[in-house]
């Protein structure tokens, strides 16, 4: 009797062990597959970034030869061709930095709001920065890069805080849906105010409207240097918040149950995104769709883990914005299109695809 009762138990235990082994083996295979995909994706993005850098230096309104490219890269500026190449170096660097910053901030915004349509414009960050800079130019006469940066960061921060405060009203707090709705309303209101400030000022209308399109043309090292500390701080904060974004992806209740402080996680992520978007908006103007498109594309390579997704979004954003800038130069040669127009052409179809694709309906 004892022997009979033990046999089924032994058989069940053996099946459980076999099932557990199969599950472990399947998990190991999945991890290896993800690791291989991430490695291949990282190599691909680095190769594309190198190609984009070379093409950005080589192509432009003026055709240049290899000798002029090498001369400019070595610091010699003796001919017009050398000068043309030399002027493209800071432009290329700014395109890479802006793309990386917008890509990372887009991934953070999507994780923060758990909304696949989120980008730096959703929480009013870009619109707040743009309005602050326009007011600074129109009413206070600011004309220095450092003033632009601080003004843009202040505007972006105030707008983000206003969105969060409005979304927190009522029961339930700042849910992803409330954040998205409040952000859309604030963005529309701030954009209208920006237009209202610019319209009566014909003396600055051309300058401001060109800046509002968004572009990296005319970049100089003098413009780049002040934004580097802010971008470095924003990148560090967002990378430190990556694990918190993974927790928020489980839902507020689950994240809180696992010991995560939801409000702190959201505040930390939002501060990082503001530090990335504000300086870039100050220098380039509001560039749309990069933060929307890049994280979705990078999820195909890096998966949904934000510890991998954010670095991949930095590389992907740099690649996309640099190639978009090159395309803007070639499409309208010998003139050029601002990169904000090119990214709008790329982002609009992707936006429609995201809306229609149910598989990315939630994050």
TrEMBL record:
It is found in: Cell membrane. CDD domains: TM_ABC_iron-siderophores_like (cd06550). The keyword Transport applies. Gene3D superfamilies: ABC transporter involved in vitamin B12 uptake, BtuC. Keywords: Cell membrane, Membrane, Transmembrane, Transmembrane helix, Transport. The keyword Membrane applies. SUPFAM superfamilies: ABC transporter involved in vitamin B12 uptake, BtuC (SSF81345). The chain crosses the membrane at residues 39-61, 92-109, 121-142, 148-167, 179-199, 219-242, 263-288, 308-327, 339-356. InterPro entries: ABC_BtuC-like, ABC_transptr_permease_BtuC. Coiled coil: none annotated. It is a multi-pass membrane protein. Belongs to the binding-protein-dependent transport system permease family. FecCD subfamily. This is Iron ABC transporter permease. It comes from Halomonas alkaliantarctica. The lineage of its organism: Bacteria, Pseudomonadati, Pseudomonadota, Gammaproteobacteria, Oceanospirillales.
């Amino acid at each position: 009797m004892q022997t009979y009762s033990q046999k089924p138990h032994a058989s069940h235990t053996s099946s459980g062990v076999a099932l557990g082994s199969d599950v472990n083996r399947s998990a190991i295979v999945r991890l290896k597959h993800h690791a291989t995909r991430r490695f291949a994706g990282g190599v691909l993005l680095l190769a594309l970034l190198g190609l984009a850098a070379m093409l950005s230096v080589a192509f432009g309104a003026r055709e240049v030869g290899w000798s002029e490219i090498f001369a400019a890269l070595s610091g010699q500026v003796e001919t017009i061709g050398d000068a043309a190449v030399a002027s493209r170096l800071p432009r290329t660097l700014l395109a890479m930095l802006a793309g990386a910053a917008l890509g990372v901030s887009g991934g953070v915004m999507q994780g923060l709001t758990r909304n696949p349509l989120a980008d730096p414009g959703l929480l009013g960050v870009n619109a707040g920065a743009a309005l602050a800079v326009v007011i600074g130019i129109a009413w206070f006469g600011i004309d220095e890069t450092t003033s632009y940066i601080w003004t843009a960061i202040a505007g972006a921060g105030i707008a983000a805080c206003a969105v969060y405060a409005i979304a927190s009203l009522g029961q339930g707090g700042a849910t992803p849906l409330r954040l998205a709705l409040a952000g859309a309303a604030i963005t529309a209101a701030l954009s209208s105010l920006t237009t209202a400030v610019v319209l009566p000022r014909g003396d600055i209308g051309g300058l401001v409207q060109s800046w509002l399109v968004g572009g990296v043309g005319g970049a100089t090292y003098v413009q780049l240097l002040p934004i580097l500390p802010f971008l470095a701080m924003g990148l560090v904060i967002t990378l430190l918040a990556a694990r918190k974004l993974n927790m928020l992806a489980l839902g507020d209740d689950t994240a809180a149950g696992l010991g995560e402080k939801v409000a702190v996680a959201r505040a930390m992520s939002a501060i990082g995104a503001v530090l990335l978007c504000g300086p870039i908006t100050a220098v380039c103007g509001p560039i749309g769709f990069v933060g929307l498109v890049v994280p979705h594309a990078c999820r195909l390579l890096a998966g949904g883990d934000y510890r991998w997704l954010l670095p991949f979004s930095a590389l992907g954003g740099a690649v996309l914005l640099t190639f978009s800038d090159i395309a803007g130069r070639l499409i309208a040669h010998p003139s050029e299109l601002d990169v904000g127009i090119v990214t709008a052409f790329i982002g609009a179809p992707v936006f429609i695809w995201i809306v229609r694709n149910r598989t990315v309906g939630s994050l």
